[in-house]
Design a protein that fits this description.
Layout: E1 2-9, H1 13-24, E2 29-33, H2 39-42, H3 73-86, E3 91-93, E4 97-103, E5 106-111, E6 115-123, E7 130-131, E8 144-145, E9 158-162, H4 166-177, E10 181-185, H5 200-208, E11 213-215, E12 219-223, E13 227-232, E14 235-240, E15 243-246, E16 250-251, H6 254-260, E17 286-288, H7 303-328
Parallel strand pairs: 1-2, 1-6, 2-3, 6-17, 8-15, 9-10, 9-15, 10-11
Antiparallel strand pairs: 4-5, 5-6, 7-16, 12-13, 13-14
Helix pairs in contact: 1-7
Length: 329
């Protein structure tokens, strides 16, 4: 049995930031990540550029140098690799948490590789692993994906891009520029107002000139092998289709939160209950860090405004562990 002061679930930037603070506090900790290091960033589109500047993504006193002031996915992956190496962070990758339960004096955590006992737990799992499904017939066809890497597979193909956020816009523009016949479907008026300011005019002009077809106030009704049926204000429309790229957003791993009895808000956000002064959830000893704090409101927390969670969490854990030790003495 591995006995820890704190187990950190999630090896993304915020999980790593918690690891840095735990190292500085001389705590016995471990980070477990079900995929590769910074797995969510790895799964971003190959050519993605961050909205944030390099300076805002820095942590642990390590400068983030990038060619442009807004770094690319590749630059971020390399930066966080260097951060991990510099701080000698204890990270187990490709190790998935399977079961969490409260026990006397802490928590028992069973993973795909081992079992741990920890006094405290930090959940920093992000939200990029579980897509929001459209829940329509045909969504399970092989031609449908909720993730996008690069445009090359879609050359000369009829592409339907679902969504109006940054991911959808990037997919539509990249695939169109490589020769795809692109159609977008928006459930509302059009492109999300919060789309990256340097990209928004580009997509709006492509739609205006008809280079990219767009259906507004519309939804996907059904997906077939060679076509897609849409519900539009003018009625049902069927269009030729080879691939559907559903950029419909993602959601946190609520199952993990439910195992420990973490309460969720009753509104549409389903936001976990936690103390904003120290990030501790309604379950004593369980802390929440990063975008998982927003529930389904995935636009509230980002890397740059969540790094501070790490210091708050580890400071509180350190204080409480020392307090218990003092009582014993």
């Amino acid at each position: 049995m591995n006995n820890l002061d704190v187990l950190i679930i999630g090896g993304g930037p915020i999980g790593l930031a918690c690891g840095i603070e735990a190292t500085k506090a001389s705590l016995n900790y471990l980070i477990v990540e079900k995929g590769t290091l910074t797995n969510s960033l790895y799964n971003y589109p190959v050519n993605m550029t961050f909205f944030s500047t390099s300076e805002k993504l820095e942590m642990g006193g390590i400068p983030f140098m990038s060619i442009s002031h807004k770094p690319t996915r590749t630059e971020a992956l390399e930066y966080y690799r260097r951060v991990t190496k510099h701080w000698k962070l204890k990270v187990n990758i490709y190790e998935q948490v399977e079961k969490l339960e409260s026990i006397e004096g802490g928590f028992l955590i069973k993973t795909s590789k081992d079992t741990y006992q920890s006094k405290k737990v930090v959940i920093a799992t992000g939200f990029y692993d579980l897509p929001n499904l459209m829940k329509v017939p045909g969504e399970d066809l092989p031609k449908v994906t909720h993730y996008y890497k690069e445009p090359w597979p879609y050359i000369g193909q009829n592409i339907l891009v679902v969504g109006g956020g940054n991911s959808a816009v990037d997919v539509a523009l990249e695939t169109w520029r490589k020769g795809a016949n692109v159609t977008m479907v928006f459930k509302d008026e059009g492109v999300d107002p919060n789309v990256k300011y340097w990209v928004k005019p580009d997509i709006e002009n492509r739609i205006k000139e008809g280079a990219i077809k767009a259906y507004t106030h519309s939804l996907v009704k059904e997906i077939h092998e060679k076509e897609v049926t849409l519900n539009t204000p003018e009625g049902e429309v069927s269009i030729p289709n080879d691939f559907v790229l559903a950029m419909t957003g993602y959601r946190p791993n609520f199952a993990l939160l439910n195992q420990l009895g973490i309460s969720l808000s009753l509104d549409e956000k389903r936001q976990p209950c936690y103390d904003q002064t120290n990030q501790e959830s309604n379950v004593s000893g369980v802390y929440l860090a990063g975008v998982v704090c927003g529930g389904l409101n995935t636009r509230e927390f980002f890397i740059e405004n969540s790094i501070v969670h790490a210091e708050s969490i580890i400071s509180d854990i350190k204080h409480k562990l020392e307090g218990k030790q003092d009582k014993v003495l």
